[in-house]
Amino acid sequence: MVVMNDPSPGVLSVFDFDGTLTHSDSFVPFLRFAFGRRTFARKMMRMVLPTLKCLRRKLTRDELKEVLISTFLTGVNEQWVKEKAEVYCAKNFEKMMRPRGLMAVAAELRSGAEVTLCSASPAIVLQPFAERLGVKLIGTQLEVIDGMLTGRINGHNCRCDQKIQRLEQVYGPLNQLHLRAWGDSRGDYELLTAARDYHWRYFHRSRPRRRSPIERLRLDKHL
């Protein structure tokens, strides 16, 4: 009788986008690019008070993100944003992306892993980047009614535990997969803690020598 071994779990490789694969944030620069400097500056003036409230912890980061989206994208044509995102990606891809990050994405694809970006930035902005990388995308979804953005998030901002929930909606329970994850900020802690192989600020030129916050979180879970 031949005894069949249990198949090894599939590999899911998840990359955060902003600050992990890129040198910096992508969404605010996109807004500046799409609306132009003058309109961008005028609209950003409305963000001063909400930003101060966030710094004083009277407003959460998620709530501040909602204000930003509402300020810029209420009543804006969805197709217009998609077209601007295409041009933004074409013009800025090379200077935005970390070369070592691009090599890592390519290596994961060659290995046969399922590869996806998982980002708090709006999916509508990152879709051209995902297509150029040849990977899937999970990002913050914006509400659209009759082809127009309402200025509201559809569901929740895709960060922290929402990254886990969104990934499991697509791929099923993560503990049944060999999860590899790359991230660089507080919004990635839950994802990196859940990963079998995690990489904290892996593509930054100078990686932190001290124990990463993810290592501390993992230690706390086992104490």
Folded structure, characterized:
The protein is an alpha/beta fold. The protein has one domain: 3-Layer(aba) Sandwich (Rossmann fold). It contains 10 helices and 8 strands. It has helices at residues 27-35, 37-44, 48-55, 61-73, 78-96, 99-110, 123-133, 161-171, 189-194, 213-222, and strands at 11-15, 76-77, 114-122, 136-140, 142-145, 148-153, 178-183, 197-200. A 5-stranded parallel sheet has the order 4-3-1-7-8, with helices on both faces. A 3-stranded antiparallel sheet has the order 2-6-5. α9 links the parallel β7 (178-183) and β8 (197-200). α1 crosses α2 and α5 (78-96) crosses α7 (123-133). It is globular. The termini are far apart.
Give the mean pLDDT: 92
CATH class: Alpha Beta
* CATH third-tier fold name: Rossmann fold
> Oligomeric form of this entry?
single chain
Name the CATH homologous superfamily.
HAD superfamily/HAD-like
Anisotropy-based shape: globular
**Alpha-carbon Rg, integer:** 19 Å
Number of helices: 10
Summarize the helices and strands and which ones pair or pack.
Blueprint: E1 11-15, H1 27-35, H2 37-44, H3 48-55, H4 61-73, E2 76-77, H5 78-96, H6 99-110, E3 114-122, H7 123-133, E4 136-140, E5 142-145, E6 148-153, H8 161-171, E7 178-183, H9 189-194, E8 197-200, H10 213-222
Parallel strand pairs: 1-3, 1-7, 3-4, 7-8
Antiparallel strand pairs: 2-6, 5-6
